[in-house]
């Protein structure tokens, strides 16, 4: 074992390396650009699943409104892209050139003031992370400081998702309404609709996802990760030990929101639009299913769970258009009933022990073969010694006589 392999084994990064090979080598070599772009869209959901592993699996806080933060990050990026696509030349046929088309359709004659900063990419990138994090901080601080948790917190996050959806749809002149923001073409003059751009955006999404996994593993192995687990299992004991449990919950909730915002921005870049259909209650629950199917305690499992659910949705909807919803329900129910800990639990409880048994059997067979191979040589040498032995003994006894 070379030093690099030994270092990977000592850090427990073997699964991360396998996932990196799958995402960075196997998928690009296997899929065409259309399917690879779909995988990139699925991986953008993976950021939400990773945040839920930290929030739900380690922090013990279930949020059913992660679509809110996914949508906020996506809209922040979409606003910049929409403003770039709405230059005066491209919108010269409008009543008011230089503003997004949906604003012109709703009789707005000037760009709203709060849209102005989104003309700058650095501001949009900061907003992708900061806006979801600030909203999560406000909600988390208000709830956790009052010790609101469990099912009550889950219902409140669902209510926030519903409120934001209604707000986006109702403010059509500022948000694009039910249609969302569409026709997003360029990023600083770079056409994001070309095949080469889709390859680059896919690799960017995959690399950021792998970096997020490493960040999550580092947090899990740190003292903070231990405190999150202790807080999940024995919250009162952690509180009586002098730790501010509420602020730990606020932190992990903000972390999950920031990751969701990054996923939303990458989704907008790869798909080319953002709408309220990704913000509401239904997509938020689907995002929880991604983490549940993959394993809410496993970062790697959450990514595989996201890919499995979305691959299943695509395959079933294409192959069985009349039955795909029933098949998806059967997939969810079957996986959660058969493997309560998700794919990660299946791997740890079934595959790994089976592999170790097979390895032990192979080693036992090799040891038996080596013993059988060495036994004839020993038996062949023993008669020779015995033939020499008696003759020498006989001659010595004759001399004594």
Automatic annotation (TrEMBL):
Compositional bias (Polar residues): 376-401
The UniProt GO MF terms for this protein read:
branched-chain amino acid transmembrane transporter activity
Q: Which domain of life is it from?
A: Bacteria
Q: Which residues cross the membrane?
A: 12-31, 43-72, 121-144, 151-174, 200-219, 240-267, 287-311, 323-348
Q: Identify the InterPro entries for this entry.
A: ABC_transp_permease, ABC_transptr_urea_perm_UrtC, LivM-like
Q: What is its main location?
A: membrane
One GO location term (cellular component): plasma membrane
- Keyword annotations from UniProtKB, A to Z: Cell membrane, Membrane, Transmembrane, Transmembrane helix
- Where in the cell? Cell membrane
Asked whether the keyword Transmembrane helix is assigned, the reply is: yes
- Give membrane topology per the record: Multi-pass membrane protein
| Keyword Chloroplast among record annotations | no
Annotated region Disordered: the residues are 367-401
Recorded protein name is: Urea ABC transporter permease
User: Which species?
Assistant: Hylemonella gracilis str. Niagara R
